């Protein structure tokens, strides 16, 4: 009886793992396709599509752009979110419920609508499309997330330590940078990392708000629109490989240390 | 020297100002623009509800929101149903020291590029794609089955992403439950299934609802997945919105449609508001 | 532009300015590095987005070309709407839409003496569209047909001779429709015995019914990539709105793909290239335009990666093999048997799009 349920559990887990990994494996396998079209029969292996990606200057620029936008917008989101979380957690703010509501409101609004609002506003005001505009949009979507994560981690025990520091003569700024931030660094790091992930992968805002200089998802979309090609498989596989390495590094260094 | 205590405002003002400037104001601008109308190539800036009236009276427009709601509801249900047992297995059956590893493995494809993920499903589901080739190779099929460019493909593409997301959130929820609950239920004579239905499920419901709402919001506003996998055989709301600016510069209609979509999401939010309070626990 | 929406009342302009400068001042680092000496911005169809076409030009002249790809004149106008005057230098647009774009004052007249007008296939000069009051606003650069692409191993080529096969039951579920309302509506109109140039609102009900019938027997409606993929991977065997632009580029990998102009004819599409009136870099833009219509540029454009199609320059340096794939020698017959894209008024255009959306939703 117990045995049977374990077997069922294993089977189910394998099925779900299969479902989750199927497209990724197909993607990776057909990035080594020899011919133009990335569907069976497989007639590789060939590395020519990786060559095509590496010699595509625009694709590489787009990777750089995405990284830059993700880094800066995540940093801004984390800092603004942290400050706001501190303000709300350590002070009684009149009308605080409403103000907190305003800050987290973008969480329940689709990216498409946020992007459309920014596009229409920027167009009306004559602000040109740019990576900077995308960065602004990414802070809008990530700031509430950072705020919510950090705010939820600000416990009373932290407040006591801060009070002690203040009694010993630390200024507000000193408390914030020397006491609160180090105590909360796992939350800060999680916010930053999550924001990075979302910004790096975000399509629609970047699509609406850029022209020539654009981010990787938009560049991949443009590639897909010019026809079926294993090159898209190659770039997808490269991005996946980079992400896995990053996740592994973070897992092995940051979180392992934290666990001890 | 004791530092003078600053009030809350220096800390919360930047985030508030930012949200007001780049979220609230664009939203108001969009609401105003949605009241204008585009006739021919001329923009009529007299405020009116022309676009909204057109949406509710044009069947092909109105159908988009219906399609969107149907697809999103289906995605949410399928994802929860698939993810819950998975999260349960990870939390209960996998040895504790392997759990973290298994969990990371279960959400690893999360880190493929999102545009590429939909495209990869296209390769899997296409007429000459992997599944059809296998099934025909094994002799299970004589004719390829159409899977790409259908609603099924859109739902599957979405579910792929949200099963990962929900596995993560439900797992976190299950791990927070104290084992005492189950022991107490067992002591009172409940069997496994009774414990699950009367104790575990109600306790994890808030987590499920939060995940389901997140799924709903993210799925209903997504353009890429239906655009790549749905084959334009039907339009979902985001596709209709994008059509307004991809075929002609009809920003008023695009704004009106965005506002309508947003109202629909808000209604969903209110419906599950009691589980979604972002107040501190 | 006809609309008055650029004239904003003073007070609103002040608010807009105040908000704008706040948003701007918020992060001054945006200012960005100074641009390279010569850089032009071009709004183009995807075929221009090919290093084999652009790089030789940049190597020779030192002018960098930034490309933004769009699909359909409506989208181009939408993108122009989202920009500031002077943002764009070069526009590639459907030949049939040149009058519409020129009427909005977007284009600058071109100097005839600097263009190889004598080398261009005469029907493709399209002076009715490109010339107004003695001024030439654009020059054709590439053309082809929206007709029927099909897989000759899977369907009977004889069936492809009549347009009505596209909404008949014989190939039900094996048809894809190219998701661009103008050419496909044009084809349907021709199939119904109408002239694309004379379409009025009165023709729409019949077109609508036929479109819905066609949707009923089709498997999918897709943009350039989706419809190419569909026919290339065998998802469908017939593509409505296809033509050499679909099959020529795929010919090497899949020789079974072919295209035909049915007896009712095909819809002739042509792209024209022009220079924006508000451009600040008209000399560089003209150089690029001259390169595109030169024999070398024409050959590269005709065989660019997104889609192949006929060059307009009779001296284009194509190989015999390439000419064969493009059916160079069949052009006189094809041209005689084709009609231009419909060029509806803004009102009729909106109606057509509504019909199209309705078709998508069925």
Task: Describe the protein.
The complex is a heterotrimer of chains A (260), B (281) and C (362). Chain A is 78% helix and 0% strand. Chain A is mostly helical. Chain A has one domain (2-259): MetI-like (MetI-like fold), CATH 1.10.3720.10. Chain B is mainly α. Chain B has 2 domains: 9-57, no CATH class; 61-248, MetI-like fold (Orthogonal Bundle). In chain B, helix 3 (59-92) packs parallel to helix 7 (151-176) and helix 8 (179-187) packs antiparallel against helix 9. Chain B starts with 8 loop residues before the first helix and ends in a 5-residue tail after the last helix. The mean pLDDT of chain B is 87. Chain C has 362 residues and is α/β, with parallel strands linked by helices. Chain C has 2 domains: 36-143 and 270-329, D-Maltodextrin-Binding Protein, domain 2; 144-268 and 339-361, Periplasmic binding protein-like II (D-Maltodextrin-Binding Protein, domain 2), CATH 3.40.190.10. Chain C has helices at residues 10-26, 51-61, 73-81, 98-103, 127-130, 181-191, 204-217, 224-232, 244-250, 282-293, 295-302, 320-326, 331-336, 346-361, and strands at 39-44, 64-69, 90-94, 107-108, 131-132, 135-136, 139-151, 175-178, 218-222, 238-242, 257-260, 266-276, 310-311, 338-340. In chain C, helix 7 (204-217) runs parallel beside helix 14. Chain C starts with 9 loop residues before the first helix and ends with a helix. The relative contact order of chain C is 0.17. Chains A and B meet through helix 1, helix 3, helix 4, helix 5 and helix 6 of A and helix 1, helix 3, helix 4, helix 5 and helix 7 of B.
Notable characteristics:
heterotrimer, A: 260 residues, mainly alpha, MetI-like fold, 78% helix, C: 362 residues, alpha/beta, D-Maltodextrin-Binding Protein, domain 2
